[in-house]
Amino acid sequence: MVRVVGEAGDGLEVLRLVSRLKPALVFVNIAIPGLDGLEVTRRIKKRLPNTRVIVVSRQVREAYAAEAIRSGALGYVTTRARLTELLEAIGSSFRDEPYVSTPLSQERVEASSRRSEGVVTDAYEELTAREREVFHLAAEGYSSARIARRLSISPRTAEAHRANAMRKLGLVSQAALIRYAAERGFLPPLSLTERSRYNGERKS
């Protein structure tokens, strides 16, 4: 029997909730505000290694599933998944067996995950934990002042982390930052025009 003990719509809040409730299983969406689901997964597994994580994503791509498994998730379920698949993913996780949604290939995902272990696949992996937090909030349209308040740091420190993240990722503008985050699946599927309008509303 599965019982829901908590819900959160923000990656940072997920971490706070998980630390307090210590659930046996967590479902987390990659495109969650505050901090992406893969980074949330990594931090959950570091703090609570016995908590199982299943990643949910709209991306039907084996590379994303492999990255989720490599991050510590025991399952990767697409938003198109049927209820039976969700139940299968839950059952597999409690048997400590990785589960990947159809039509993705379980074998190819696991093989890709094993090949990538210990290898820095892109510049994002080189960001510090704080740089990732600032990066995601910046992609959502938070100003440095709002990021500072959210993370309890100074605006100057927030701006420095944002600049460092952009330099490491080779990004030269806010539009490029948003595009990068969207292509990684960290943001909902909005167009750049819609995202820019959304950002302006959040800053006002």
What percent of residues are in strands?
5-15%
What is the CATH superfamily label of the largest domain?
Answer: Response regulator
Order of helices and strands: HEHEHEHEHHHHHH
- Give the neighbour order of strands across the main sheet: 1-2-3-4
- Could you estimate the helical fraction of the residues in percent? 40-55%
CATH architecture of the largest domain: 3-Layer(aba) Sandwich
Strand tally: 4
- Coarse structural class: alpha/beta
Give the CATH class of the largest domain. Answer: Alpha Beta
Number of helices in the DSSP assignment:
10
Distance between the termini: 45 Å
Round the Cα radius of gyration to an integer and report it: 17 Å
Major beta sheet summary: 4 strands, parallel
Extract low-pLDDT stretches: 191-195
Number of domains as seen in the coordinates = 2
What fold name goes in the CATH topology slot of the largest domain? Rossmann fold
Approximate shape: globular
Rounded mean pLDDT score: 85
Description:
The protein has helices spanning 11-21, 37-47, 62-70, 83-94, 106-116, 129-139, 144-151, 155-169, 174-183, 192-203; strands spanning 25-29, 52-57, 75-78, 99-100. By secondary structure, the protein is of the alpha/beta class. It folds into two domains: 11-116, Response regulator (Rossmann fold, 3-Layer(aba) Sandwich), CATH 3.40.50; 123-203, Winged helix-like DNA-binding domain superfamily/Winged helix DNA-binding domain (Arc Repressor Mutant, subunit A, Orthogonal Bundle), CATH 1.10.10. The chain has a four-stranded parallel sheet. Helix 3 (62-70) links the parallel strand 2 and strand 3. Helix 3 packs across helix 5, helix 6 packs across helix 8 and helix 7 crosses helix 8 (155-169). The longest helix has 15 residues, at 155-169. It is globular. The termini are far apart.
